[in-house]
Amino acid sequence: MSPILEAKGIYKSYGTLAVLHDVNLSVRAGETLAIIGPNGAGKTTLFKTLTGEALPEKGRIETEGHDITRMPPESRVALGFARTFQVARIYPESTLLGNLVLAVECRNRLIGASNGSWMRWRPSDETNADAAQWLEAVGLADRRNMEARFLSHGDKKRLEIALALALRPKVLLMDEPTAGMFRSDRRATVDLIKRVRETYGVTVLLTEHDMDTVFGLSDRIMVLNFGQVIAVGTGEEIRADPMVRDVYLGHEVENA
């Protein structure tokens, strides 16, 4: 099966600081790939190059036959990309439903669909129904009229996932989806990501420092260190890799 997302020979620097060195990545449709490594390894920068927030100096990025290396972020969204961030990016002064209405309307504009003649004054019934289904998908439907600023940290993350899903992505990139969460919230988020993957067939790329989350979700794991790929493999292969243990995991995880 051909990959849904492939990056070849990616180089990226900020001024004189080289951040990514000849990074190669290949993800199959429906797969979950975790990208791990120490702070400063280049994980977030790699995400930025994949989503168009930063352009690499060298290399090529493709999705389903499209060269997207220099394509702007909104064009990648139209091709099926969405992402979440370490700190949830939501619209805090709007209601939960209002957040989702905006996401639905944005997607409609990107793909050239109509939001309806009433869009300037109020969302159409179809838009409201579409928005409500994504709140239901992440378990927030009962708070649809609450302002988003009143949500807990974990629920803000869930709302951001709903915003990403409303774009109907093929590829969902999640940057530290459980960062700052209590253990119970982390477990709930892992369960949510599993449901999203199984229900919608979304391909997931994630960066994460919590190893229980990484090993619980990923089909394969890629390890970055100083901007270079040092290992790619299954959870078992990554646990057993002596270089990965030395630079990141530590030897105590070998039999964890």
Mind explaining what this structure looks like?
A hairpin with a 2-residue loop joins β4 and β5. This protein has a 6-stranded mixed beta sheet, sandwiched between helices. A 4-stranded antiparallel beta sheet has the order 2-1-4-5, with helices on one face. The chain has 2 domains: 157 residues, P-loop containing nucleotide triphosphate hydrolases (Rossmann fold, 3-Layer(aba) Sandwich); 76 residues, no CATH class. The protein is 37% helix and 23% strand. It is α/β, with parallel strands linked by helices. α3 crosses α4 and α3 packs parallel to α5.
List keywords for this structure.
disordered C terminus, 10 strands, 2 domains, four-stranded antiparallel beta sheet, 9 helices, Rossmann fold, six-stranded mixed beta sheet, alpha/beta, 256 residues
Helicity range of the residues? 25-40%
- N-to-C CA distance: 32 Å
Mean pLDDT metric: 90
Shape: globular
Rg from C-alpha positions?
Answer: 19 Å
CATH class of the largest domain equals Alpha Beta
What is the count of structural domains? Answer: 2
Secondary-structure-based class equals alpha/beta
Give the CATH superfamily of the largest domain: P-loop containing nucleotide triphosphate hydrolases
